[in-house]
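Quick start: read one record
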Amino acid sequence: MSKSNYIPADDRYSNSVGYNYCGKSGLKLPKISLGLWHNFGDVDDTDEALKMIQFAFDHGITHFDLANNYGTPAGSAETNFGKILKSNFSSYRDEMIISTKAGHEMWPGPYGDAGSRKYLIASLNQSLQRMQLDYVDIFYSHRYDSETPLEETMGALSDMVKQGKALYVGISKYPTDKAREAYRILRENGTPCLINQDRYNIFTRHIEQEVLPLAEENGVGFIAFSPLAQGMLSDKYLNGIPENSRAAHSYGFLQKSQLTPEVIEKISKLNEMAIQRGQTLAQMALAWCLHKQSVNSVIVGTSSVKQLQDNIDALKNLNFTDDELWKIGELGA
């Protein structure tokens, strides 16, 4: 990674992406957050990673979302982010929201996965070491673990806050009934749940029925991941599957089989709507997520500064007519 003499832009807040309060807390999140799931590992372009983080910060994107297993190899996204922080942002730590998670398999054996107190606390300690930090702003239980009592998992989260290793805690991808219980336990522990993170996009809307209303009822914020449905909600697949796209690989969450003729037709119609709005399809998809008041922020994963700028430009038009919302709802069903 090249040495940088980076100095943040003076107008990064006056010309920022804008902020929403996270649930009923006093914490504001940028409308767009930068996710480091892809493109920040050891196999990726570290110079471009540095440029993206600098560009994000210059545009008021203060929230950087990680997890213990992000990057290839797992953990490398945190390590590389820590190097970038140390060499470029050591004076700006208090202007950042840094989140990480644990819940998926991270190391071999019985203690490197799931929701036990031992795994979660060990994982946070390792994450702090990789990022060279004293604390993270948000620590998530990355998934519900049916084999571990919820009191144990939530108790570990509460203790992280009380020990000063995390300022806030959250949950991700929890079933509704378990989320309700988690909110109660954390509240009784004196460390209320700040935020729920889940998949949400035009093609994935099941959380509208229970997850979003429950979060709002409990004063919990919500942040959406995969707002572009792993790239399906872009113009990338309108004319086939590009050679280096996610769908071209046999691994990963987006498979060729998902891009059926029916899905491609829906994407094409959505793209036509976006053009009429003066947006790219990706921009319209991000704007659509943010039009819902209970969505405080969306996490974007970008591979270049150009793509990040395109995502930020989604904020130029967040308004939808009733007719547009109805049509998008029909196409997303």
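The domain at 19-235+283-319 is CATH 3.20.20.100 (TIM Barrel).
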